[in-house]
Design a protein that fits this description.
This protein has about 160 residues and is mainly alpha-helical. It is about 75% helix and about 0% strand. The chain contains six helices and no strands.
Amino acid sequence: MTRKPPFLAFFSRYALYFSWVVSIAAVGSSLYLSEVMKFVPCNLCWYQRIFMYPILILLGIASYTQDRKIIRYVLPLSIIGGCISLYHYLEQQIPAIAKMLPCTVGVPCSDDYLDWFGGYVTIPFLALIAFILITVLLLNGREAEEADLDDEEAYITSN
């Protein structure tokens, strides 16, 4: 069995904590933008929040209890939320996509309040980065979970 480099082993060991910190930053940022800055979220922003907010709670509990089994439940939330963020970002960057399925209620999904670096860094882009970070960290942490299970099985069979 090949060993991971120490850098990756460190992130595997603390994957739950790091992904929880990313979710704290994402949820805190979304609440700051809507409650303090008074930016009204569009429909797709609400869908992204629907997937990010439970991740915060689940990873917080899992980090506290050292329960790596939660990874298999959080990964689908992160991947689906990331797909919604990707679609939302593409809708903002490619006007033809915004015309295919326009937002008919509330704030248009193709509008963005942030316009950093010429419009490339937007709120959905930041959400996409958070979902990608959480997914990559949890996939890395899942490998550590499997290694822990293998070690536990080896211990049980040796005794």
